[in-house]
Design brief:
Layout: H1 2-19, E1 21-22, H2 24-31, H3 35-47, E2 51-53, E3 62-64
Antiparallel strand pairs: 1-3, 2-3
């Protein structure tokens, strides 16, 4: 399970690098993973300081922290 969360976190990072920001629904559609896996992976990325994550009202809008982008 940990490996799959990490792989999904990488997929999210690449998606956000290309699209700048995305909601939970956009991520689910864009990378083809279940929402529960995306939520676990977003938590991983947020904990490591790679993303900013909005609240439920913004549909869990996420974006890479600018210092992480080339």
């Amino acid at each position: 399970m940990i490996t799959q969360i990490g792989i999904t976190a990488g997929d999210i990072w690449h998606y956000l690098d290309k699209h700048e920001s995305a909601t939970l629904n956009q991520l689910a559609e864009g990378i083809g993973k279940p929402k529960d896996m995306i939520l676990m992976s977003l938590g991983w990325l947020a904990r490591e300081g790679h993303i900013n994550l909005g609240n439920e009202k913004t549909g869990y809008l996420s974006r890479l922290i600018s210092s992480q982008r080339p």
